[in-house]
Design a protein that fits this description.
Largest sheet of chain B: 6 strands, parallel
Radius of gyration of chain B: 22 Å
Structural class of chain B: alpha/beta
CATH class of the largest domain in chain A: Alpha Beta
Cofactor (chain B): thiamine diphosphate
Oligomer: heterodimer
CATH superfamily of the largest domain in chain B: Thiamin diphosphate (ThDP)-binding fold, Pyr/PP domains
Strand content of chain B: 5-15%
Shape of chain B: globular
Protein name (chain B): Pyruvate dehydrogenase E1 component alpha subunit
Number of helices of chain B: 14
Helix content of chain A: 25-40%
Keywords (chain B): Coiled coil, Oxidoreductase, Pyruvate, Thiamine pyrophosphate
Number of helices of chain A: 12
Shape of chain A: globular
Helix content of chain B: 40-55%
Strand content of chain A: 15-25%
CATH topology of the largest domain in chain A: Rossmann fold
Distance between the termini of chain A: 55 Å
Keywords (chain A): Oxidoreductase, Pyruvate, Thiamine pyrophosphate
Largest sheet of chain A: 7 strands, mixed
InterPro entries (chain B): Alpha-ketoacid_DH_E1_comp, DH_E1, PdhA/BkdA, THDP-binding
Radius of gyration of chain A: 20 Å
Number of strands of chain A: 14
């Protein structure tokens, strides 16, 4: 039977609540309603109002009280209802949650998971389609997970909850209804998620995460028809960033395209391009390229198809690095 | 009333005062009950605590002037508010302090040199929160109030008997986090005590800029059981804190205390209060000094005050000498500590950054 990402996330929370009595869920509308996306559907009735807690409408309050619960020995999992509502909690995330282990000299652990449904493409009003991951990847002390597959949504959420560090867990909301027929397996003990080559290739390394991974797989299929072989890498975690896997790939392909919905400047793509330029300079046959959202506030939804990297924009970037490659190959002949 | 120098509207709640400025005991129908177990020896201990604390504070200011500390936030004048409240808590009540609650931490057994080491810049925090049941000191104004609310929710959910205590100042009451904390604590009827030291000043800003009503009245509006006390009267602070903890501990919901006191010193050693407040105000508050007041009361009681003062003085001298020696001989941390405890679990980029930098340093050392 096929399982959706929503169901996989629900099962992940269910299993974590079931196996560790210190796991506690906090968020707006997550209890009686089961969450606006129904990720927490049925959990309050099964585990009770002291394990699945509807909170007042205050994001800083949600994250700040989760920190207090962690001081008390709990393992809180909080839901921020939409990406654009994360910012009221910014101090608690960046100055408190991220830094308490360091500040306390390792004496206080902050095993808090912050789930954020993020990204665009669902036709929503302002503040419901943003991709704020770079803020958190930039902040030492936080781990940032961004799964794309249904299987990863299950297992990486289990890993995030089990982790003694705070994890900002980005859920690709426009892929919530993706399905898998594979069995959902808990992660191996002590395994931490690494970048994954989801489709091997030879000509160009294309790197994405979360919602764009699906776009990259589509691009790889389209490119194959044109005789170009793309190696698709799903980063899975943005902190730690698994540059080794990307570098190993680029050393083979000599070409890199990074794709994300978030704005371009100072984004995850910029970091990857810089790291790869430092590590693989002699292997590069073309400057690394980025295909990203523009440096604009998230636009009204009737314009979002321009803003979100789609198959055509990815293919355009792939063509650019390939044309250059073909031109120089031609010149050498 | 005279404790308010600026236009804050008269409040709905009375200001409890059990010792007036002359050290005369004023009966208080509601709070006297909470003093019944206090013996003369306890009052002598309060005196010692406040004298030692004031000495520690003065030593810290001096050490900062001498370059031994990077900064210090004096608590001069707030000794009764801090000692009176913390001495009313149980050891397993968990406290979330701001950066000025040195007296609270010290009274729970934190060594003065460990406290000061943070202000020296030698380490990020000076104690193990789980050993003394006090969180790390908080510098962002008011953020810790939410941690206290969450901790209190945890006590409520797991059926504990402790109370979670948040300390903050009058300035913090303007912060969203403090207001959200009161909402959360009230919603879940969590055992949380919000202890506000209204010391009249948030750096240069008078309390009227934060609140046009008495702070206690605002807390009352959140549905918190609230007391307003003379914060320089250690008996009123102690009794009200006992009452508030009793209320919270018995499942009656969160409580709030506004302790009306005065920051007699600067905001920090980097501040110059003469730029924004008049010396007359300081003189007015010197007459309400919390230590003098307790001494007067002990005299009223016919206690052997001289021996108590001598004992307190000896303890203060002892602490000062040891503190100075410990701070001036404190070694700087090693470069490795830069990268330690950023994460609780293995984190390869941090390990790589540490190795690269330490190798770089080692190259220099090798080249010399």
């Amino acid at each position: 039977m096929a399982t959706t990402m929503l169901k996989a996330l629900n099962k992940s929370l269910h299993d974590a609540l079931d196996q560790d009595e210190k796991v506690i869920l906090l968020g707006e509308d997550i209890g009686t309603l089961g969450g606006v996306f129904r990720v927490t559907d049925g959990l309050k009735s099964k585990f009770g109002e002291h394990r699945v807690v509807d909170t007042p409408l205050a994001e800083s309050g949600i994250v700040g009280s989760a920190i207090g619960l962690a001081y008390r020995g709990y393992r809180p999992v909080v839901e921020i209802q939409f990406d654009g509502f994360t910012y009221p909690a910014f101090d608690q995330l960046v100055s408190q949650l991220a830094k308490l282990h360091y500040r306390s000299r390792g004496r206080v652990k902050m095993p808090v998971t912050v789930r954020i449904p993020y990204g665009g493409g669902i036709g929503s009003p302002e503040h419901h389609s943003e991709s704020p991951e770079a803020y958190f990847a930039h902040t030492a002390g936080l781990r940032v997970f961004a799964p794309s597959s249904v299987e990863d949504a299950y297992s990486m959420l289990r890993q995030a909850i089990a982790c003694d560090d705070p994890v900002i867990f980005f859920e690709p909301k426009r892929r919530y209804h993706e399905k898998t027929t594979a069995e959902l397996l808990p992660p191996a003990p002590d395994a931490s998620p690494k970048a994954k080559i989801v489709r091997p290739g030879e000509d160009v390394t294309v790197v994405g995460y979360g919602p764009t991974t699906y776009t990259l797989v589509d691009a790889a299929k389209a490119a194959e028809d044109e005789g170009t072989s793309l190696e698709v890498i799903d980063l899975r975690t943005l902190d730690p960033l698994d540059i080794d896997t990307v570098a190993e790939s680029v050393k083979r392909t000599g070409k890199l395209v990074v794709v994300h919905e978030a704005s371009r400047t100072s984004g995850i793509g910029a970091e990857i391009c810089a790291e790869i330029t430092e590590r693989c300079f002699d292997y590069l046959e073309h400057a690394p390229l980025r295909v990203t959202g523009f440096d604009i506030p998230y636009p009204p939804s009737r314009l979002e198809s321009h803003h979100l990297p789609d198959l055509d924009r990815v293919m355009h970037a792939v063509d650019t690095v390939m044309r250059h490659h073909e031109a120089t190959e031609g010149a050498a002949k | 009333m005279s404790t308010q120098h600026i236009d804050v509207a008269a409040g709905c709640l009375p200001t409890h005062q059990l010792l007036n400025v002359d050290g005369k005991r004023i009966p208080d129908e509601e709070l006297d009950h909470y003093l019944k177990d206090l013996k003369e020896a306890d009052l002598a201990d309060f005196l010692r605590d406040m004298v030692v604390l004031r000495r520690m504070d003065n030593e810290a200011t001096a050490l900062q002037r001498q370059g031994q500390l990077g900064l210090w936030a004096p608590l001069l004048g707030q000794e009764a508010a801090q000692i009176g409240s913390v001495r009313a808590t149980n050891d397993d009540d968990f406290i979330f302090p701001s950066y000025r609650e040195h007296g609270v931490a010290w009274a729970r057994g934190v060594k003065a040199e460990d406290l000061l080491s943070v202000w020296r810049g030698a380490q990020a925090s000076g104690w193990d929160p789980n050993e003394v049941n006090i969180a790390c000191q908080q510098i962002v104004i008011g953020s810790q109030a939410l941690h206290a609310a969450g901790y209190g929710m945890g006590i409520k959910f797991d059926g504990g008997k402790q109370v979670s205590v948040a300390y903050f100042g009058d300035g913090a009451t303007s912060q969203g986090d403090v207001n959200e904390a009161m909402v959360f604590a009230a919603s879940y009827q969590a055992p949380v005590l919000f202890f506000c030291q209204n010391n009249q000043w948030a750096i240069s800003e008078p309390v009227a800029l934060q609140s046009r009503t008495q702070i206690a009245d605002r807390a009352h509006g959140f549905g918190l059981k609230t007391w307003r006390v003379d914060g320089n009267d250690i008996l009123a602070v102690y009794a009200a804190t006992k009452a508030a903890l009793n209320h919270a501990r018995h499942g009656l919901g969160p409580a709030f205390i506004e302790a009306v006191t005065y920051r007699m010193g600067s905001h920090t050693t980097a501040d110059d209060p003469t730029r924004y407040r008049k010396s007359e105000q300081l003189e007015e508050w010197k007459a309400k000094d919390p230590i003098d007041r307790l001494v007067k009361y002990l005299h009223e009681m016919g206690a052997d005050v001289q021996s108590y003062e001598q004992r307190a003085q000896n303890a203060a001298d002892d602490l000062a000498a040891k503190l100075r020696e410990a701070i001036t001989s404190m070694e700087d941390p090693k470069a490795e500590e830069l990268f330690t405890n950023v994460y609780a679990e293995k984190h390869e980029p941090t390990e790589r950054a540490a190795k690269n930098y330490l190798d770089y340093l080692a190259d220099f050392e090798g080249g010399e």
